Amino acid sequence: MNDNPASALSQTDDASFSEADAHALPRILLIDDEPRLLSALHELLRDRGFDLVTASSGAEALAQLTARRFDLVLLDLRLPDMSGHEIMDFINAREIDADVIVMSGDVGIEAAIGALKRGAYDYLRKPYSREEMLKTVGNALQQRSLALDNERIASQLENSEKLYRYLVDSSPDIIYTLNHEGRFTFVNDRAFQLLGFAREDLIGQHYTVLVHDEDLERARYAFNERRVDERASRNVELRLKCHPRAGQDREFNTTLMTISLNSMGMHVPDNDVKKLEFYGTYGVARDITDRKRAEEVISYQAYHDILTDLPNRMLFKDRLGLAIIQAKRKMTELAVMFIDLDRFKLVNDTLGHVKGDELLQQVALRLKQCLRDGDTLARQGGDEFTIVLPELAGRAEAKAIAEKFLACLHLPFDLDGHQVHISASIGIAIYPGDGESIDELLRHADIAMYQVKALGKNGQSFYHNSMLDVSHQKIALEQSLRKALEQNELEMYYQPQIDVITGRIIGAEGLMRWNHPQRGLLTANEFLPFAEDNGLMLPISDWMLGALCRDMLVWNESGGEAIRLSLNLSPQYLDRGDFFEKMRGALLRYGISPAQIEVEITENICIRNPQYAIEQLNKLCQLGVSVAIDDFGTGYSSLSYLHRFPIHTIKIDQSFVKEIHDEQGHYPVILAIISIARGLGLHLIAEGVETEVQARYLKSNGCLTMQGYLFHHPISLGSFLEVLQEQEVQLAACRASVPQAKRA
């Protein structure tokens, strides 16, 4: 007998392995429709001892799999003509003996679950590292090699006892036999490698020394199995104990079969057998710990938000449902809160989505610290969070927790040196008064949250039935807004801008109004948010541009002195590449001088996409249209963009003007803005001037153009023209009186 097991292996003439011996190099099929990625993958594996074949489509891959034998398939899930899952179904249906490593850029878990269910060896998420790919390929081929070796040696058990020992001890699985009492009569070396128990520690011991206490009842049927063939135990999952030196418990998929004397002849020669008699159990235990952990990770991710690690919408609804059942049984109340962060979109637009994600993570941590034991905080998506408060003592307790949320969010957030302040709008619904189902409670909490938004944000509110009527009114408002353009219900109003030295109107800001057939005259703040959310800002902005030019034409044709009208520009409108062409077309169509038009933008437009904004605004300036920064100082101000952007005017926001209560007082923000405008040679306008004190303070410190209720409310075109004509008459009278005074 040859003492070398490997030598004994080489002597086999088993025809089933002739093809494997025909090529020494593992053959790998690379499937990816992206030429760059496919080339990079081929380059990575080229000089590493593999026979590489590539395919750039599903059809090409199926042709290769049909024509040739492969050890390993590296499969991209997204192909132009079929999915990777379909290719795996083809492999399984044809019983093609090849391991599959799936590569995918899909962040969802459905693709991973589908791949694992179809028997994928591993799942790599793009972009993967070189080391990760090489390690996974190496492990797959190594495991395949071990499996093939195991299979090859199994076919030669009759040749040699030593070959049998080599097969068993080289197996990646634990192989064992038990006598009729359930005691180990044989176990291979893999038990020591995985569990830390040496062979001599187990021989003669009952199988229960290895089985986890909670799995003993299930193990009794598997380890005492007497049946054979298809009726024997298959894929029974058990937890086995590890020796203290081996680490944590591991989980096993145990395949068992009963061995009768005439089938195996393990102890008694065949010629001495008088009858079929059970004398023990043979089993193979495969370590599936890593697979179980992977399944746990996938299951966890299916019910949790990856960014914040909070329960997601699905898990939240499950827990809310359980809380409702418990509250119904105990006849107690519970609260559902809907939280929406205020000004979060501004952070995303100005600092970027990475910083926005960091902010959401910090918000989640703060909110969790305010919860009681048993409360559930979940992320619904975006900047929305939901909370269930079971076993509520009363509304006062829910209100107190909501106030804690608002207080914790009031403190500034530090995003790599950027101090960010946000607030939240919180809606609260109480079970059972505000609803008895999951969807009803969530919907009512959401309605209450929007009520807080409508009242100025940064607060909390309990749901009330009257809010449902308001919600229905908003839906009706959205529907009727779509008809307003067609039915000519929109109108431009103008708020004059006054030169306080001469008292003359030198310009006006165009403000949109809606002549609603039932609700009367609506201001822009009452309907433009709906337009922003429902994709109506573009057609409304088109209308506003045309209306402004038509109104300007009416004034010009009356022969009055030229004035300048300003137009508030929506960020959505500027982002459209055809804005400049629309502006130029409208000016040409109505014969309006570009110098009579000023475009007002917020500073956040400049910050979120600076280069694009610079290009668009430069085009306007070349055309002759001037640019004003509206609400200056209220966003994430940066003096650098005042140098980079073609800006002509700064408008002091009314929130700063309202702070002026003393003509002799000191208001540093206002003074700073005036100094900036003076230093950069920019025109300056103060908005929201309502008192003589405010006007005198601004005038004495160098701001000479103002608009606000002190001078004029926003007025219709007809009223605006009357005011302008009256001003023209007064000017003409002054001019006529000058020569008479000289003659006198």
UniProtKB/TrEMBL annotation:
Domain Response regulatory, residue spans: 27-141
Residue ranges of every copy of the PAS domain listed in the record: 160-231
Modified residues (4-aspartylphosphate): D76
Source organism superkingdom: Bacteria
Pfam families: EAL (PF00563), GGDEF (PF00990), PAS (PF00989), Response_reg (PF00072)
Protein name: EAL domain-containing protein
Gene3D superfamilies named in the record: 3.30.70.270, 3.40.50.2300, EAL domain, PAS domain
SMART domains named in the record: EAL (SM00052), GGDEF (SM00267), PAS (SM00091), REC (SM00448)
Stretches assigned to the EAL domain: 474-728
CDD domains hit by this protein: EAL, GGDEF, PAS
Keywords carried by this UniProt record: Phosphoprotein
SUPFAM superfamilies: CheY-like, EAL domain-like, Nucleotide cyclase, PYP-like sensor domain (PAS domain)
Domain named GGDEF: residues: 332-465
Organism: Massilia mucilaginosa
